[in-house]
Amino acid sequence: MSEISDRFEICRRHERRAAFIPFLMAGDPDLETTGVLLEALVAGGADLIEVGMPFSDPIADGPVIQRAASRALARGVTLSAVLDLIARKRASLGVPMVLFSYFNPIHARGLARFAEQAAGSGVDGVLCVDLPPEEGAVELGPLLARHGVDLVQLLAPTSGDDRVRRVARQASGFVYYVSVTGTTGERQRLSAQVLKDVRRLRKRLPVPLAVGFGISTPEQVAEVASVADGVVVGSALVRFLEERAGQRRLAAALEERVRELSSPLWETRR
Questions:
Q1: Of 47, 61, 197, 229, which is the active-site residue?
Q2: Which of 178, 177, 166 is CA-nearest to residue 141?
Q3: Where are the alpha helices (DSSP H) in the chain?
Q4: Does 61 participate in catalysis according to the annotation?
Q5: 134 tagged catalytic
Q6: Which residues of the chain carry a pLDDT beneath 50?
């Protein structure tokens, strides 16, 4: 089992709850601060962490995460710098790290070289948001697997039976279910159909299913946790940091916010 699988197993079987998975954009506001904020996520209750690799054309991201990526790129943040950050923090953080990236930076690095460097840096999983499973299975997935790194697959409300079957065959670590048919960003409420779809999909997948996109309140975390194995919160945290840019005790404020968001997971234990 991978580090990611182990962590979900602890949450599900031993603590009888869903995992909390926060997202941060690496390099926003700068890499040194990102390192401190990663520690705050763990202190607040993160079970896994998604680390965003800034990219200039983030087609799946809403305006909040796009702005964060732009700020990081303006500071010169590169793939090498992000991997170095993970290498410096992974052991002390003690939770699995998932690199959230688009395919272009990975392809530019070279797939074999990237897989080796990601594993050497302590990356536990890679979520490549614009890489279809048909293509991921050809080369990147096997290269990552050779180094013990999971390639996290995505499903969406529009995924048909063929796509679900293919993802189920290739899945490792966990599957990320995109809860909306649009870009990332906070929503006022979650669709009842999403919850129904998650229940149905969990029965068809051999790995845990985490739900993200649009989750921004403790109430929504609790709602998703009642049906999913993991809850991902991204835009809400990135916006939280954006609104407090330059303030003192930023890490302490983030830790408290993560604690508020993750606390319902203990109340919805199965």
A1: 61
A2: 166
A3: 3-9, 31-44, 63-74, 79-93, 103-109, 111-121, 133-136, 140-146, 161-170, 192-202, 218-225, 235-243, 250-262, 264-267
A4: yes
A5: no
A6: 182-187
